[in-house]
Design goal:
34% helix, single chain, 122 residues, alpha/beta, two-stranded antiparallel sheet
């Protein structure tokens, strides 16, 4: 799938369900969304809470593309890094701002992750 860099919207062809051929969608709650099934998300939330409780200090949270319009992911990343005395690495082309002591990268996720991987490998 390709993304229009100006609008950040997916360009056709969009993904389809392998069973019925209808437009595939992520299992996330969207505004006015009557078709969302919370079961998987609830189970994942419980696993994430257990992970944070059992993870040692020094956690590095890498967040890709979360904006400020609906800041739920940004808040979650900031809280997770703070709870585990870790570092937040926020990758966002338009809104890379981070709390003091953390890292904001104003670039695309693939480019940032590729550079991080190269630095870690050297």
């Amino acid at each position: 799938m390709t993304v229009d860099p100006a609008s950040f919207r997916a360009r056709p062809p969009l993904p389809s369900c392998p069973r019925c051929g209808a437009l595939a969608r992520p299992n996330i709650l969207m505004f006015g969304d009557g078709g969302w099934d919370p079961e998987r998300s609830h189970a994942q939330s419980l696993r994430f809470a257990r992970f944070l409780e059992t993870t040692a200090a020094g956690l590095c949270v890498i967040e890709c593309g979360a904006g400020t319009a609906i800041p739920t992911v940004r808040y979650t990343s900031e809280r997770a890094a703070a709870r585990r005395e870790g570092t937040l690495v926020r990758i966002n082309q338009r809104e890379p701002e981070v709390p003091p002591g953390h890292v904001g990268l104003a670039m695309g996720a693939l480019a940032a992750l590729t550079r991080i991987e190269a630095i870690l490998a050297s």
